[in-house]
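Recall that a protein's primary structure is simply its ordered list of amino acids. Everything else, from secondary elements to tertiary packing, is in principle encoded there. The following example makes that idea concrete.
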Amino acid sequence: MSWERLTKCPGAVSDCSEHQLPVPRVQPVLDARFRPAVLARRAFREQVRQSGRALPVRLALEQTDGSVYHFPMEIFPEGTTGAELNYFHVERVLKFLLWSRGGWRIYFDGPASVATKLAAHYRDDATGKFDSDLVGAKMFDHPLEVVNTKDIPPERAQSKPLGRHLDGCRIGFDLGGSDRKAAAVIDGKVVFSEETVWDPYFHPDPQYHFDGIMDSLKKAAAHLPRVDAIGGSAAGIYVHNRVKAASLFRGVPPDLFNSRVKDLFLEVKRAWNDVPFEVVNDGEVTALAGSMSLERNGVLGIALGTSTAGGWVDGRGNITSWINELAFVPVDYHPDAARDEWSGDYGVAAQYFSQQAVGRLLPAAGIEVPKDMPLPEKLKLVQALIAKGDERARNIYETIGVYLGYFIAHCAEFYELQNVLVLGRVTSGQGGDVIVEVARQTLNTEFPELAGKIALHVPDEKQKRHGQAIAAASLPELK
């Protein structure tokens, strides 16, 4: 394995001056600096074990409902060679856990010096404060709290069945960052579906969002004899149909968010005579749609759209209380990796598996576009180019495919993966085939032990058109 010695590390990791990151065997054609998180994590783990001084530590996250999720690691003992790397690796792993599991209280059974740095990170650093505000305060009603203790509560995992109710006349909807979809479904059969372009991210007036949602629901309802139930998906975290945190409403001022957005879907429900109504994270519906279509469980859904959405259906076909907000999990450990414009963090998935990734790679591919061209239009241009056999466009998709192969291997350290469903607007057309094929090749080359265990799936055209709508419509159980 080849290595690159870096002379700096990102953010507050000032003691990581000579960190070594493995160079991937499969290098993205448009991103020579890419240093996959999974290789760095594996290399650190091997270094610790070869030292003969491995110190077991435990991380745990507690949610407001009492759920507790554990995660073990091994690091260097304090005062030994290599201990200066501990915080960097613990913080990056914890970042993945925060945005995949979620929680507000962090238990750390390990050196006090690392715990102190973690607490300072979430209190003082811009990226840490972002995590504390969104994951802690907004999703779980408390800023992040770090507790350094050996007395970690026992693991208490919760899961529940999700959807799969197909009886009656239902509406399914999905709210994305560039379009919203709605479908009319009768006993599991789609009788109408429509996609409407909108731009919700930076609209400050919640009425814009309410009116758009109602417009789509009314169009679907016009094709049903009655409306028995409504189910929907959207980017963000929703608890009992209340908005906890959602990128769709990032342009809404805090006072309006609290007074109108938090209960926006309850308002929609009332407008439809309080029929059974459920809205959940779009990634969960993605995974559910895949599980229903494939008739398999242990499914991680990864949607490459305006941003990156994730969802997880466990081995029993249930969802857990994990948040699976994969847009913010680390993918690339290079200190000069792409910075996320919202969180400010480096190397996170939103910059690697989305329209943002396509836009970011255009200059490296040698494709010139106007600076003010919207991301959806940039994606359409690249899709048109690859359809004509343009090698520059193919390089973009191959690069994303390499990213994806390494990311799936990284996810396998945090999920008991059996199946990965890859979908979203970026995977439409020939480019999607290239992404998945290159991801498979990357797994075969770098991680042959995983390639035979994890099946990659792409939805067929029927599922692409209707799978998400049917899964969303199936969420509510009729009274």
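The first helix runs from residue 37 to 50. Residues 36-148 form one domain.
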